[in-house]
Amino acid sequence: MDQVTSPIVRRATTDDAGLLAELGARTFAETFAADNTPEDMAAYLAAAFGRDQQAAELTDSDSVFLIAEVDGVAAGYAKLHAGAAPDEVTHDEPIELARLYVSHEWLGRGLAATLMQACIDEAKKIGHRTLWLGVWEHNARARAFYSKWSFREVGEHIFQLGADSQTDILMERQVEERSKSASR
């Protein structure tokens, strides 16, 4: 597949609540619907990606949303969230990479790497030294992607998807680290 040559990554504003509700629900479903029950997916999507929920998250001063656009069309997004990190996250001044999703038509074309670099840059800009995340234990593609970006496994926690308690692998990296992917 062709690499994305000119994505633009911008900070989301409160005007993006509808966009993030649609993009978030769509990309989450694209990624996880095949491996979960329709009932659990519907419950999670309704709770996590409604327009009002996104509007509230956008006004949270501890959260930053980054939207990746290609030719003016939103193709992916990320959410950083400052706050208490799990005990397993040991490096200083952590911020969570709470979400990083790319529309399926853009997978394998460099857009996720562009978003990841934007997240690292943003974390550094706002004074954080550690980026951490939780990734579903069965999401091999995402786990490999994060490993290429120098994230290392540090523990696990439970992620509630509807009625299903799932195991997420906790991963962290220092913001200053340079990954193999980032140097290419």
Could you characterize what this model shows?
By secondary structure, the chain is α+β, with helices and mostly antiparallel strands. It is 32% helix and 32% strand. It has five helices and seven strands, in the order E-H-H-H-E-E-E-H-E-H-E-E. A hairpin with a 2-residue loop joins strand 6 and strand 7 (164-174). Helix 1 runs antiparallel to helix 2 (38-48) and helix 1 (17-32) packs across helix 3. The two termini are 17 Å apart. Residues 179-184 have low confidence and may be disordered.
Beta-strand percentage? 25-35%
Q: Compute the separation of the termini in Å.
A: 17 Å
What's the main sheet like?
A: 7 strands, mixed
How do the strands line up in the largest sheet?
1-2-3-4-5-7-6
Write the H/E string, N to C. EHHHEEEHEHEE
Oligomer: single chain
Structural class: alpha+beta
Mean pLDDT: 93
- Note the total helix count: 5
Poorly predicted runs: 179-184
Using only C-alpha atoms, the radius of gyration works out to: 16 Å
The percent of residues in helical segments reads 25-40%
Using DSSP, what is the number of strands?
7
Instruction: Please tell me what the overall shape is.
Output: globular
In short:
By secondary structure, the protein is of the alpha+beta class. It has helices at residues 17-32, 38-48, 51-58, 111-125, 140-148; strands spanning 8-11, 63-70, 73-82, 94-102, 130-136, 152-161, 164-174.
Topology:
Layout: E1 8-11, H1 17-32, H2 38-48, H3 51-58, E2 63-70, E3 73-82, E4 94-102, H4 111-125, E5 130-136, H5 140-148, E6 152-161, E7 164-174
Helix pairs in contact: 1-2, 1-3
